[in-house]
Amino acid sequence: MFEGHKVLKVEREAIELIAAHAMDDSAHLLRSGHLEQLRKILDDPEASENDRFVALELLKNANVAAGRVLPGCQDTGTAIAIGHKGENVFTFCNDAGALSFGTYKTYTERNLRYSQLAPLDMYNEKNTGTNLPAQIELYAVPGDEYHFFLLAKGGGSANKSFLYQETKALLNPKSLLDFIAEKIRTIGTAACPPLSPGPRYRRNFSGDDTENGQAGARGLPRLPSQQRERAGPSLPRRRARGEGAAALQRDGGAQCGGKYFAHDVRVIRLPRHGASCPVGLGVSCSADRQILGKSTRDGVFLEQLETDPAKYLPEVTPRELGGALVGIDLGRPIGEMLAELGQHPSATRLSLTGPLLVARDITHAKLKQRLERAEELPQYFKDHAVYYAGPAKTPSGYASSSFEPTTAGRTDAYVDLFQSHGGSMVMLAKGNRSQGVQETRKKHGGFYLGSIGGPAARLTEHRIKQVEGVEYEELGMEAIWRIEVEDFPAFIVTNNKGNDFFADLAAPPPRPKASDLLKPRQRASASRLQSSRAAADFRRQCATQAQPTATGRRSRLSCSVSGS
Predict the structure, then answer these.
(1) Which of 92, 369, 460, 525 is 20 to 30 Å from 413 at the Cα level?
(2) Phi, psi (5° rounding) for residue 306?
């Protein structure tokens, strides 16, 4: 007791443990609800072959990552910790410092990647080597409990957070769903679908947008769906989940073709200024990494994530997934490889075996500097397909760490220049590319292959057989690597003719037919009426054509009417 109030004292070590174990668990485990959503794709008769292929690979990846050696995604993210501290909770320490230290322990002691860059001056920066700083937000709330929401956000989904300035005209069901369907198409596939988008009508400021990520990551579970009118500030509202998800599945497209661009949608309604209606849009990607923790009178607790994802794996054969694989030997001369790929259309499933060159943003910039100095691209960069990826730390006894494709769009600016010098003729990554890259490939005859964004652990354990440094090893994960892969799964996204597997994502959705807007009973009646009218018109045409001719004979016709 303290001055008549019950209080809770939380030790610094408890906060450190919550952060450390939360970041460890979320890097390797997923919520059972997320795994159930992936399994539902496999059970959905309307899912495409590629929908099921992606879902199965993500489930297999979850099973490997649950071994807690390899993280589920190579981009182990920016660590984010959000705390709601009761007014009667005492810690007598720097809470943010304790959360940072727990995060530091996990990222430095486990096989996770350091992704944070700190500025040395306005233009130069350096990797911090610890994945700090973490993003930490602490709020004071009533009560005597300390609640935490911890998550890790990778660059792919973080880069797909947007702010739109709208008006009151948006605040009706039709306009809202049209807005979601339009804006979600700008996200593309680089954020590793299936996604959980979180649109939010927000206050009239454009600062930190963490609540968007919380919406997509199910971090705001207690919001009411409705609220009574009353004086004073109103609570946020949550609406339009099912309708928004249906709109995205109908119009959004998926990671490798199909309807599953999004699992679900959560829309959060906040107070607004009468003259402004800002809307934030954020997503949680297929690496759905978040976890709840709390400290109460009963102890310190952490949400239980799924440790046995294998139970969500169905008995699915390659024949059920559909589509024959085309084997590609990456060890052949690049000219022969281009000729082989040129025999197949976009969307062809591939199985890659042989050497791949691995390079990311920073090494692309360094190679560009060579060309600007009138030097040549290294021969190795001309001889091999280039894989846009970056590894985490390699566990003892493994050939590689978690090693999966990263977002292709970040290297779009280099493609024309490199291909004009004989490099980057075959590229492997995830997500769609800009229109400029499509034109470049038609000009130079290159190919862009897509692999599945998300299953880093499975790719590492089963597909990557050897890793060795080539150049710029001082850059860590940003170095140039040479890896040997076996039966590495991929798709032809864009071929040397410019045909693009993702092209329809940029096209507006087709306008619905008038009959699609009718209720089922009305649609059936309209169909019968239309069939009846067509039959009557056809009979009249038959009767007219069957009138006696100048010879006095009737023409011989066979009139067949169905559905009359």
Answers:
(1) 460
(2) -75, 120
